[in-house]
Known about the structure:
This protein is an all-alpha fold.
Amino acid sequence: MLYLLQRLQGVLPLNPQGFGAVAPDSAFNTAVSFASNTNWQGYGGETTMSYLTQAFGLGVQNFLSRLRAWPCWSR
């Protein structure tokens, strides 16, 4: 979902800066990074990602990846 959001951000709402799609390799790297909770960033967030991608994509993924790890660190 995060990969598609990055690739389609140019045609989605909440993109007042008019950013185009994130490159396929960068979108894949970011999606895997945020899904695995490593959050390695190889991009400039405010100069690459739209508001929708940052808030809905990266923000939600940060929350979900931490939530999936919860059973491991709650013991």
